[in-house]
Amino acid sequence: MKNGNNEGSIRKRSNGTWEGRYSDGRDKNGRQIQRSVYGKTRKEVAEKLNTILNSKQNCTYVAPQKLLLKEWLIQWLQSYASISTRPSTYISYEGYIHNHFIPILGDIPVQQLTPATIQSFYNQKHENGRTDGKGGLSSKTIRNMNNMFHLAMEQARLNGIIAVNPTQGVVIPRQEKKEMRVLSVDEQAKLMSVIHMHRLGFAILFDLATGLRIGELCALRWSDVNFTKCTIKVSRTLQRLMKTRTELDEIDDDDTETYNTVLIEGAVKTPNGFREIPIPQKIWVKLLEHKEQQQREYMTLGVPILPNGFVFSMPFGTCVEPSTMRDALNYLLKIAGVEHANFHALRHTFATRAVESGVNIKTLSDILGHATVQITMDLYCHTSIDLMRESMDKMSGLF
Description:
hpI Integrase, Chain A; 8 strands
């Protein structure tokens, strides 16, 4: 039986169910493409058919496909993410896709994904989703996963594979704000008192005085130092990352785990990360002394002195890896009798001391290389208990 607009037909099948048929253009040979929808009642099929025909009129129709999510995610990763993301981001995406999405959702056709399915997936991952079986993924990790998945599904929508991005409306678990580790003035003084007890001690002091990220500190070269203006230019970062799955497939079975990672020197994360930082006078003097000491060390070992060599290097001129820099900090904290702090705590400490000293927030944001001033304000514009006590003491005479 034809429908009223003669754009589709509905018939009862021999098994008692109903079928609706509609035309969907022509194939490459010019033959008309016929598609069907099915239901238990004529009304059910008519509703399905009308939805399809209305979407055709509204130009929102998407032809049915059997493309599985795992097929699309791998295609998206190779064709889109590989040319639009940083190496570290690409490796993160690759891990999310192969370790989390594909094992659970991979065999679902892309067109059958729903917000409810994705929400259930995230809830499960938050509760017990770590690959080592030791609990659930953090809210931050799930947020990062969803950001990636949203990009992949939005590309599918733009490519005409789906009509609506199914990540719309998904709710991410609330992220608990972690307490920021900042060295107290006393802890900072203790750390600075033992700086001389490690060959990388000045690198630790330099970071306390500039707030560089650990990758930026390790990537700093003498060609980034302006000896006229007493400034440094921050434009690169150094990271050791897992190799991509393609690279790992090319490794022989006899290779050790050392070959599973690669040291990458790349550009800083955001445009604001490219910045020039003035160096405090006392630190500048120590930087020049460090340069002389490094050159004497190179000459003793027969290492060429290069104008673009690393500011902080190993004895034979190679870079200091972030893990080695962390080891140096851990060693100095231990002998200083200071409670453990990760390397990023040095950056937090620098920013906190800056705020306490009255440094303008916009200026501090530029020094830190934050994407927005709001990030700086959210992180550091809070009143310390000492400042609150000082303010309360000023009011004590009123009572």
